[in-house]
Amino acid sequence: MSTLHSIWRDNRIVVVELSRLTPMDLHLDNRYLARDLPRIQQQGLWYPLLVYRADTLWWNTVWIKHRSAQCRYVDPTINDDGTIWAVKMGSNRYQSAVHLGYNAIDVIICSDANECVKIGKWFAQCDPLNNKQSLPYLGLYDYEHLL
What we know:
Blueprint: E1 3-4, E2 13-17, E3 21-23, E4 26-27, H1 36-43, E5 49-55, H2 56-61, E6 71-72, E7 83-89, H3 91-99, E8 104-110, H4 113-126
Parallel strand pairs: 1-8, 3-7, 5-8
Antiparallel strand pairs: 2-8, 4-6, 5-7
């Protein structure tokens, strides 16, 4: 199995087969081709995908009503635990991994969607791999305690 590992290391990272994940949003403009794919090809995967376990009833009754017209959607994969492992942060990186032929990828499985967003925003705003001098990285950012 070929696995796309993230450069960022965290003791909560697990390797998950891409076939077990369900992306919540796949942008119709295929922005991953111009942004994420070239970066992953040149520099590797910086940060793991952020995933949470979604209840199938919620997915099929609530989530389905809030979908964006700018995105396409796939039928969810129901895993052995009876939940959908929803890719909340990292759908473009997910698509890049699929495009490149990987079978598995590094993820952090969060407790809920809010935790995914908080950690994802921390990665995006602080970029701790590439910006060690930012004020948020120096402890002034409230998401840092989640890591």
